[in-house]
Amino acid sequence: MTLESPPIVTTSSPCRLQLHAKQDRFGAARRIVSANPRLWGRAGLVDAAVVRVTETLAHVNPADCELVLENMREGVRAAVRDQSTALPVVVEEADCCAESGRGTFIVANTADLWATSPIEGGGKQVWALLRAGA
């Protein structure tokens, strides 16, 4: 799915984290993803944000990437940017016994709105909006 990102109207400064998308670093990313929605008074979005970001990080180019969390009027927007131009493959129905192919299914089913967008100059951004009270 490729859409333009919704207009960003933040209610606080975004959280930006540069990291290598390696599984041994996912714990630190999960702690940061857990803390920010709580700081913003959106504890109900923590679980969905953690699952969504972990799945996205597991499927990006493992070189340097950027995780951005933003507190918006509509909810929390989480985005992962990397230098790869390969877009995620959208899976309509996940095979629970398959070795792969569940990541986009999980993201699509834990986010109220999500998409991928190419980044000018190369790379992509995979983002999701998790709405408060949804």
UniProtKB/TrEMBL annotation:
<protein>
    <submittedName>
        <fullName>ATP-binding protein</fullName>
    </submittedName>
</protein>
<keyword id="KW-0547">Nucleotide-binding</keyword>
<keyword id="KW-0067">ATP-binding</keyword>
<dbReference type="InterPro" id="IPR036890">
    <property type="entry name" value="HATPase_C_sf"/>
</dbReference>
<dbReference type="GO" id="GO:0005524">
    <property type="term" value="F:ATP binding"/>
</dbReference>
<dbReference type="InterPro" id="IPR050267">
    <property type="entry name" value="Anti-sigma-factor_SerPK"/>
</dbReference>
